[in-house]
Write a structure and sequence with these properties.
This protein is of the alpha+beta class. The chain contains six helices and eleven strands. Strands 6-7-8-5-9 form a five-stranded antiparallel β-sheet. It has a three-stranded antiparallel β-sheet with strand order 1-2-3. It has a three-stranded mixed β-sheet with strand order 4-11-10.
């Protein structure tokens, strides 16, 4: 069986995938999992989603065991972090331009000091992952939790659901629309609570640093933790 791991997709036409070398590959189902700029998404999905600019570096060195999070003017509209690892740390920063007041990720240079980071983008969820025989998975489908930018676990869950539905579609004629149904059943509440946490966060991000600092205390810790972990704020809904 030929390998296409390094092939570039130039276009999608019906059931055909057209590679850069003009070779055509036919498929009953085509899945786009190439991130927010996936060619399948760019051609057949016009829906825009939330873009969050993210910059991070891996640093060698000795770091405390605790995870540090930074909010307010350090990372307008989002947050920055330091996550210790064996022999180093993952240090990053995210911003939302609507709260950045003209600042961009160039401000990350001050946060990282002399270190350089890698820039990527993450997208918020779109309303429908399926169109006819086309499916989107992962970042291409916006399977990113808006409140914290997490996307690896959600992409794995989406990929598993998509694979199961595609297999049933080929074997038994099951509708590909069941992909969306099963996703909503499995992850619908998590995404809803994440978006709700994002809304709460947006109110916080409009506040001055002193008010943000005041809001982080022993009384609010349970609520903040529930928002970060995408659970209902008061444990009820």
């Amino acid at each position: 069986m030929p390998s296409f791991t390094e092939a570039r997709v130039n276009d999608i036409d019906g059931h055909n995938i057209i590679l850069k070398n003009r070779e055509r590959i036919s498929s009953r189902v085509i899945v786009g999992c190439g991130g927010p700029h996936d060619p399948l998404r760019k051609k057949f999905w016009k829906e825009k989603s939330l873009n969050i600019a993210v910059n991070f570096v891996l640093m060698d060195g000795d770091f405390d065991d605790g995870v540090d999070l930074y909010f307010g003017s350090t990372a307008p509209g989002d947050y920055a972090w330091m996550i210790p690892k064996d022999g180093g740390a993952n240090i990053g920063i995210g911003i939302q331009t609507q709260f950045s007041r003209g600042k961009s990720l160039t401000m990350a240079d001050d946060f990282f000091d002399q270190f350089e980071g890698e820039v990527t983008s993450m997208s918020g969820s779109i309303s429908n992952f399926t169109k006819e025989h086309y499916l989107l998975v992962g970042d291409a489908a916006g399977m990113v939790l808006p409140s914290n930018g997490a996307g690896i676990t959600t992409a794995m869950i989406g990929g598993r659901i998509a694979g199961q539905v595609i297999a049933e579609h080929i074997r038994n004629g099951k509708s590909l629309g069941q992909y969306q149904v099963h996703w909503n059943k499995k992850m619908g509440k998590v995404m809803k609570y994440s978006k709700r946490g994002m809304s709460w966060g947006n109110l916080m991000f409009r506040s001055p640093d002193w008010l943000v600092n005041t809001g982080f205390n022993s009384m609010t810790k349970p609520l903040i933790w529930r928002a970060i972990t995408c659970r209902p704020m008061f444990g009820l809904f």
